[in-house]
Specification:
Elements: E1 14-15, H1 25-33, E2 41-44, H2 52-59, E3 67-76, E4 79-88, H3 95-102, E5 107-110, H4 113-120, E6 138-140, H5 142-146, E7 150-153, E8 159-163, H6 165-168, E9 174-176
Parallel strand pairs: 4-6, 6-9
Antiparallel strand pairs: 1-2, 2-8, 3-4, 3-5, 7-8
């Protein structure tokens, strides 16, 4: 499968369904149900190099092919709504504008690390939209949705998932949000 991925750099991607040991349980459960999971790969990495810039520099993967997942908490009164937001690593999510409005919140911010980890069952720095709670929207920038190949977190810092944008859009709750990223 490594020959299929032009963005892999020095990674050695394998079909994700053959290495579910490289992802946490919520991610494995979601992948088993994902239409198109046969087009998804996973690659083991050094967990100390999981942060996007270091990862890309070390493994030779293009920064513009990496997408980051951020967990945003939107509040209105006592109600808190969460979303997983996907933007290219070269862009920034519009948390206080587009995302706040989509969540119908008065205030929106990145969820605190301990909260994001507890709610997703994933490691901070490896959070992925694959396997987030089913009632969360997965807000995807148009650039991510249209990408033929992406590298995203796997739910742990010790691996990365390689996935086409169209397969990412098959996740429950995924929706393209125009102007999500700048």
């Amino acid at each position: 499968m490594s020959g299929v991925w032009t963005i892999a750099g020095s990674l050695e991607p394998v079909p994700v369904l053959s290495r579910l040991d490289l992802v946490p349980e919520p991610v494995a459960a979601a992948l088993k149900l994902l239409d198109g999971a046969d087009r998804v790969a996973v690659a083991e990495i050094d967990p100390t190099l999981a942060d996007t810039a270091e990862f890309c520099a070390h493994y030779g993967s293009p920064l513009e092919a990496s997408a980051n997942c951020v967990v945003v908490a939107g509040k209105r009164g006592d109600v808190v709504r969460y979303a997983a937001c996907m933007v290219l690593a070269t862009m920034r999510a519009d948390v206080n504008g587009v995302i706040r409005k989509r969540l119908d919140a008065r205030k929106a911010s990145f969820a605190p690390m301990d909260e994001a980890v507890a709610l997703t069952g994933m490691e901070y720095g490896g959070i992925t939209p694959v396997g987030v709670p089913a009632d969360w929207p997965i807000l995807v920038s148009p650039e991510v949705a249209a990408a033929p190949e992406l590298i995203v977190g796997s739910g742990i810092r010790g691996s990365k998932i390689l996935i086409p944008g169209d397969v990412l859009m098959k996740l429950t709750g995924a929706e393209v949000l125009p102007e999500l990223a700048r």
